[in-house]
Automatic annotation (TrEMBL):
Its main location: membrane. It is found in: Cell inner membrane; Cell membrane. The chain crosses the membrane at residues 60-80, 92-110, 145-165, 172-195, 279-298. The keyword Zinc does not apply. Belongs to the ABC-2 integral membrane protein family. Residues 61-300 form the ABC transmembrane type-2 domain. This is Transport permease protein. GO terms for biological process: lipopolysaccharide transport. GO terms for molecular function: ABC-type transporter activity. InterPro entries: ABC2_TM, ABC2_TM_bact-type. It comes from Nocardioides glacieisoli. It is a multi-pass membrane protein.
Amino acid sequence: MSERLVSSTPAEPARRTLSELESLPLAPPAATGLREVVRRRYLLGMLVRNTIQSRYQGTVLGWLWSYLQPAIRFCMFYFLFQVMIGRGEGTIENFAIHLFAGMVMVHFFTETFNGGTQSLVQNRSLITKLPVPREMFPVARMLVAAWHTIPMIIILLVPCIALGWRPDLVGMAAALLGFSLAAALGLALGLVFSVGNVFMRDVSKIAQTLTQFVTFSVPMMYPFTLVDTRFGGDVANYYLANPMAEAVLLIQRGFWIGTTADPEATAAVHMPDHLFTRGLIMLAVSLVLLVLAQRVFARLEAKVPERL
């Protein structure tokens, strides 16, 4: 049966359920690499759909939870920071949107990173049965993270539009650059940490600990100008070397800036110089890291089945 799976057309295995694939005998080694993952996109899509469906299995509201949870989260932050304690009054206009825009980017990155780290261990039964590149599992978790980020973006758009935000080419380019940066960096880390987690389960705990720092190391709960004011330009430059700080600033440029009374003045005050240049450089560096991560993954993945 494993030989029929290898030689069959793309449409045939796509009709099989993952439970049927898990019952197959051990599969022979398959070609590896991210390019091979793209070539097997029919199986990648099946893996993504199964992961999404399993998350809401047994619930009454199902996928509506992906909208309800971020909506409640946004209302809580709005009430707590903007109504209760007046955070941002006089300094940060529409602080709740400033905060939630950062949360969207941080959520996408942390779910990509943490999900990718655990992907091989969580799919151990499939890894030994399917002749597919094992990079497929971290990639699938990145796509699942993107799927769950879409409702958050929709929730973000509602108050933005109500406050007069309109899409502009520069802002959309900034948001797209930010998501590309977070995706490349999160997938690179997910590849390395996923194979490391196979050999030592503590690696997943390390990844969770690292992602906790992300929330406080980006200009989300506070503006970037606070870093510059409190610690000076030298420290601010080191702060901006954090790729996720750059990604958060880019999504804030795409959405939050457009909700303020004077977007140009707000961008001049709260956005650092050379935002796009820095973002493009960090994206290029992240793509190089992704290539290196894939090579590290390829060197170690042969030992993955026996370790699982």
